[in-house]
Amino acid sequence: MPSRVIINADDFGLSAEENAIIVRAFRSGLISSTTLMANMPAFAEACSLIHSERLQGRIGLHFNLSFGRPLSANIRQQRLFCNAAGEFDLCLPRYRLWLSPASREAVSVELRAQWQRCLEHGVRPSHLDSHQHVHTIWPIYELVARFAAEQGVPLRLARNLGGNIDPAKRLFKMLLNQRLRRLAGRCAEHVCTPADLRDQPLPAQGTLEVIVHLFALGEDFGDDHLDAEESLSALLDRCLAGVPRIAYSALTEL
Prior knowledge:
- By secondary structure, the chain is α/β, with parallel strands linked by helices.
- It is 35% helix and 15% strand.
- It has one domain: Glycoside hydrolase/deacetylase (TIM Barrel, Alpha-Beta Barrel), CATH 3.20.20.
- The longest helix has 20 residues.
- The model has no long low-confidence stretch (mean pLDDT 94).
């Protein structure tokens, strides 16, 4: 069993409905952290909830390059990232290994703008990850990892547990995660989805992050990676019984 587990809910701020279910999951003790989308319509409401629910230290930034409108101007002119209307429409292949200096600068400026908007609403992110895992695309990871190190916060690694990772992809993820750790510093050693918990042996030590995407399942919670009627709460209790649940901020306290 891992030494500790972080149950992180992505997409806080995406919508009022998403905000409500994430807050309910915090209150029930299901999740230990979440990541906030700074360019989404329900962002301001999410920040108000962070303060009223006293969730500071448990909120990261869910860096977004693939949905909604950017917060900075230059990236709107980059057709790899935005359409003619200036909205995110990511056209960057997962196998892309290079970006132009102008594109790199635009990504860096947008990352700082999303971080700054959190600060302006009284929320200092405790960690970093990204919507649709864009920070694990090779030419973007270095920008995000160096920014995480600059801010002194942990960064999510690429998912490295699961039976559906073929040998070539596993090798790529191993090399990528080595670089992420070297540049960013603190990271959870293992990252998976809820479905991976039931399908794979768990690591014998270290910190595990379980990435969840919540939906209401009656009085319970479901997850996008599970079957429609499968209880996330029951799965976590069964697979991770006795493992302490921590927030990402605990990694910076060591």
